[in-house]
Amino acid sequence: MNNRHVLVPAFFIGCLQLSACGGSGDAQDVDTPIPEPIVYPEYTDITASGGATTTFDAGNSGHGFSTPSVNLTATELALHMAGDKFFETSFTTAPNAEHPELDGLGPVFNNANCNACHQRDGRNSTPQVSTGQTRVKLGSDAGIFLRISKAANDTCIKGDVSNDYCAPIPVPDFGGQLFHRGVLQARSDWQQNQFIGQADVYLSYETKSVTYPDGTEVLLKQPLFEVENPYDAPGETKQSPNLTSNLLQDDVLMGWRNGMPVFGLGLLEAIAAADILQHVDENDANHDGISGRANYVFDAVKAQTGDPEPVSLGRFGWKANTPSVRVQSLGALRGDIGITNPLFPDESIKGTALHDAYLTRTGFIDTGADENGAPEVGAEFSDAVVFYAETLAVPARRNVAQPNVREGARLFTQLNCTACHVPSYTTKTSGDIGGRAMSDSLKGQKIYPFTDLLLHDMGEGLADGRPDFLASGSEWRTRPLWGIGLTQTVNPQAGFLHDGRAATLEEAILWHGGEAEKSQIAFMNLSKNEREQVIAFLMSL
Fold this sequence. Notes:
By secondary structure, the chain is of the alpha+beta class. The protein is built from 13 helices and 18 strands. A hairpin with a 5-residue loop joins β8 (about 200-210) and β9 (about 215-230).
C-alpha cells in the first residue's frame, strides 16, 4: 500500500470536468498538459510521534519534555514520579549527618544533579562569553564537559576482552571524562584551589560565515577549549615548557559533550535491533553517499550478569557509545555526579593519584561505599531514575496542517534527509530493555523519532578526532528529531549539535558535512522561502 499523500491541483480537476461536458467539439483542440501531482511523505500529517505514549498537553510549554507517558499504569506512574524526584536531587559532600541519603558527591564531578545537564529534561544552556572577555571558565552552571582519552596506536575493528572491547583508552591518573568541579578538599592544593576538580576548563568561540547562492549570509560559531591547572601539575598550561601533566600531553584526545534530551528513550531502546541494522550500509552499496555503521559497545548490564560476551548494539550517547537507558543513566550518575550505584559501585576515579590522596587526606570518610560496602545509592533510587528516563512522553507535533510545514516535510524527503533521519519504526512487542522487563506502555508503538541510531561520518567541521568504541573521530550518531521544535521553548539558552555550537536549526544544518554534505548543499541551493519551509517542518516536530 502506498502511504504517500497525493495532491492534485484544483485547476486540473476543473479541466477534467469541462472535458467531460464535451467542450466545443473542435477536432483541433490541444490536450491540456497534465501537471505532476504533489506527493507528500507518509509522516506529513502525523501528530502522535510517540504512539500511545505521546502527550498532546505539552503545546508550547516550558515543561514540554517533562510529562509522563500517558499510557502508564497507576503503579508505573508512581514509580515514574519517584524517579522524577530523584532526577532533581542535588547531592552533597560526604559525610552529611543530617541527610546521609544525599551525601557522596564527587569528590570530583561536573554537576550535582541530573537536571543540571538535562534542564527541564531537555538540553543544557550554551555557555556565553561576556562582553569584553575572550573566554569563559566552566563552573557550576555548565552542562557541557569534555570526554578525554589517549590516542590508540591502531584503529580498533572488533571489540573483545583482549582490547577492552575497543573502549576509549583512559588518560593515566585521570580517566575518560574531565571533571572541572570538586568538593572542598578534592585536590592536594585545595587551599589554593577550593572546589576545583581535576583541572580548569575554559571555553571560547571562533566564527566563520557561510553565504547562500542568493547572497544571504549566516555567521557560524565553533567552541574551542583550553585546559589549565591540572591537579598533577598545578598551574601548568599547554604553553608551559617541559609539560609534566598526564592531561596535557600531545596524545590526549578531548571532545566537547552537551547534555541531551531524555524523553522518549525507552521507545528508542524498544526498537528491535534488526530494524536498526537493516539500515546499515557500511560500504555504501546503493551509492547514495550514506553509509551508516553500527557501534558495538561494552554492556555493563551483561557483564554484571556474567555474560561471556558483554557487547551490545550502541544506541545512546553522541557516538552511540552506550547500549541502554540503564547503562546511560547510571553511568552518568556515577560519572557526571560521582554517585556510586549498584551497576557502577566504584568511583570513576578510583585508583588515581587524586583519589588516593583525597582518601588519605580526609580520613577515608568518602570511599564511595558505606560501612557494609553498599554504594551511595541503592536499587530503589537507581531503578526509579532509569524508569523515569524510559517513560518520559514524546510531545505531539504541532501545526501539521500549515502549508509551510507540509511543504517542508516534502522538501525534507527531497533533500534525502530521511536517509539518516529515518522517520518511523514500530517497537517490539516482547522482550526486555536494559536487562529488565519492558513496560507494556512501550510495546508495539508506531513511533516517529527521525533517526537510524547509526554512526555517520559528518566531516571535518564537526569532527573531534576522538574515537569511541567503533566510532571514529568524525562519526556521530544520528540525533532523533522528535521534539526538536520545542527545544528553545523548554530552554531558550539551549543550542544544537554535540557541543551546542548551533544557535538555530538552520545553523545546525549548515554544519552538516561528510555523508550529509550533498543534502547540505541541496538545502543551500533552495530558495529562501523553501529553506524556511524546511525549518517550519522541523519546528513542528
